[in-house]
Amino acid sequence: MTAVALLLAACTSPVYVDRSQEEEAPPLALNAVSFRVHQSLAARPPSCVAVLPLSGPDGDAALEPARIEAVRRAVYAHLAPHGRRDVKPARVDFVLERLDPARRGDAAEIGRALDCEALIGGKVTESGRQFLGVYSRVAVGAELRMVRAAGGEVLWEGTHVASLHAGGLPISPIGIAMGIFEAARNMDDEQILRATDDLARRLASTIPDPGIVALDDPTEPPAPVRALPLSPEPPRKAGLDAFLEELAPLAADERRARLIQALEQRRFGDMARAPLLDALVAVPDARPEDFLRHAEYLAEAGDYASALARAEQAAARDASFAPAHFAMGRMRIKQNDPSRAEADIIRAVALDGDNATYLNGLAYVNSLRGRADRALAAYAMAIRADAANGFAYYNSGVILLDQGDRVAAADAFYGAGLAYLKTGHYGQAGKALADLKELSGPGLDLSREIDTIQGALAALEQKAKAP
Fold this sequence. Notes:
This protein is of the alpha/beta class. The chain has 19 helices and 7 strands. It has a 7-stranded mixed β-sheet.
């Protein structure tokens, strides 16, 4: 095919080809999104999905690991607003590393270790730029599959190659995985990340959303993880050992200050965070916030047990340090221990009763324990503490819908949509909009609410496209 034909194909909108309906891609449809939803998915939708590390092509076509990981993280990002529990990639990696190497290919074993019903895996087929005379093409492709962990039953399959030409076109902020372009070191990186985002968004859109379920992290709404840099980062751990030796004779306060400065300035790169944090908590009379800083790093890395231990150390140094108690509760929730989590979060709320995040946590843990009325009361307090608290509005809507109060649930989802628009969580605003559309119908006219949120999202899209 000529470069002109390729250019024209790249300009067209993607064509969705549902193989489960025996559809075929039109001739020359280079932008086809081919997928198959198996009956087993509709019959018994999974309550949790984890995205496993992806593979890449071999030989001369081999890709840098960062490009493969970027696709995985973007897929996770676009699945996060769906109505099912997800497992953060860092947690998946942490658990996989601790499995017997012989069992890392065992879907049932992985599912048990992650406490997750379904797994997505597959291959990144390409990621890069092609130069054809005066024309350039950026393309990122993948072949993905979702299976039920217990038994390996295939639930969904999808294949797509997303391409941009001559640097790409403006795209809407609504569909972009938040934070993905922060990883772009240059124009090539940015264009590849744009194509990566297109690929993930289109494939994720073909996976049926099971419906309306509560958000599961009381610290924030589901937020996509940040993409990794695509171009190699120069080694920056060099000099770390000498730096730590240089600190040894210093007074504790000065040593602590310099360690924090090195962490905040990323002086030695991300690879050095763990040893710097280890050194920080080893400083004599280390402060509670130092242990909490380490706990947050460990939680981000998926090591919930170690994060809990560091948070407990923070609380032991200062029993009045509310963030430590909340961190303990959050880690216990992630370890499926809501009873003990509740005690920790109650302590945090007692110390800082106006903190909307802590109140979100209190409400969420009550909902886990089946106390819907207490959860609603705590969410109401959280909304009074922060009127733009989309998490509290949304989860209130889920509880009210479960109780059969569709009108109150719709009000809560509308409040969530407005709150998410205000805070810039456009993906979650879109989720609230989809839920309002699902609820709207005879006896419950939500056209005004739908038009308001839909209009705001459309205005944002037009603004993004403006020159």
